[in-house]
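Forum > Structural Biology > Help requests

Title: Can anyone predict the 3D structure of Glutamate/tyrosine decarboxylase-like PLP-dependent enzyme?

Hi all, first post here. I have the sequence for Glutamate/tyrosine decarboxylase-like PLP-dependent enzyme but no way to get a structure on my laptop. I'd be grateful if someone could post the structure tokens.
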Amino acid sequence: MPEHGRLWPELAAEMEAMRAGDLDWRHGRHGAYVWYASDELEHVLREAFGMFLVENGLGIRVFPSLARMEAEVLEAVADLLGGPGAPGIFTSGGTESIFLAVAAMREWARAERPGLRRPAVVAPHSAHPALDKAAHYLGLEVRRVPVGPGFRADPAAISAAVDADTIGLYASAPSYALGMVDPIAELGQLAAARGLWLHVDACVGGILGPFVRELGYPVPPFGFDVEGVTSVSADLHKSGFAAKPASTVLFRTETHREFARFTFSDWPGGTYSSLTFTGTRPGGAIAAAWAAFQFLGRKGYRDLAAASMRARAAIESGLRTIDGVRIHGEPQLFAFAWAAEGVSMGRVAAALAREGWVAARTTSPDGIHVMATPIHERFADDYVAAAARAVAAARAAAGQAPERPAAYN
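Reply #1:
Sure, ran it for you. Structure tokens for Glutamate/tyrosine decarboxylase-like PLP-dependent enzyme below:
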């Protein structure tokens, strides 16, 4: 901290210089981290966030404007997820949304089945690590079972892993790494038959997925229109194209949501009661999410869905022209992963990174992950050309150790 303050123009210039080496997301060099739709929407998000920069979402009762915007966003998400009126919580991101769903699952199980030794959640191997993070903090066991041949959850394997200590199941729509929508309907039937909580992690696809379905793509139902689904997480700052940090978790009933609430009164400040983990929440994130929904409307999201699917198709078709390249499975949305036979994908990722492309790795199976968004449509040919060069470079370096280990951070 300097002894004396500095003027904003000087600070702005230095900050702009700092990010000269940052990810070039405006030119589609990102395979993760950023969801960008247009300069127009970015302007709306900046303005809306700035209007409520100081307001605190913890004190929602003294900011009725935030209360209204939050309620309207949650209502819109509930409609998208096939559960009009389903109660929800506005959170800071997918990790908090999943944490709250698992916390509610645990408290529900304690109420329904007291005396459980070590409650367990059964999930496919493809489940996001936020599940294990939540379980670590909450004292639960996670049992990961192998996925089926199409890299989707295997209902038979999951059913076989359920025992007397199992309290819930976990599924993805889609899985982050490979873009697969698990067979939610079958898992819902299993959950309903065995009296289990089923959480659907739709953090990636929850907002845009229903619009992809509206466009005629074969996206199976994954929300509350599926029997047995108890909670669904859907990120606003991913396929909702809102400002960070913003996500949602919705529940089938008010009773289910109340299991996520923490209440405490044995201190000098009176009763503390909160549905979120974080406490203080940026009012700007709530305002920006509301503004995004209002600015884009259903047509705007359909257009983003169409552009995202066109981008995926363009990248996929180009990749398939590279010798030995295949797409892993048959993903239904805009996320997918690819690999080239006979080469180290770690070396391919390293070669892409040297050209400025973020190449997120997958390990099961080995590959490179792509999260197609509208901006990728115009840069699809550039990505494919870079991928072809990277595969060629990796083949030339065959036999050498990979340069780039898989990491999600």
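The first strand starts at residue 88 and ends at 91. Residues 42-294 form a domain with the Aspartate Aminotransferase; domain 2 fold (CATH 3.40.640.10).
Shout if anything looks off.
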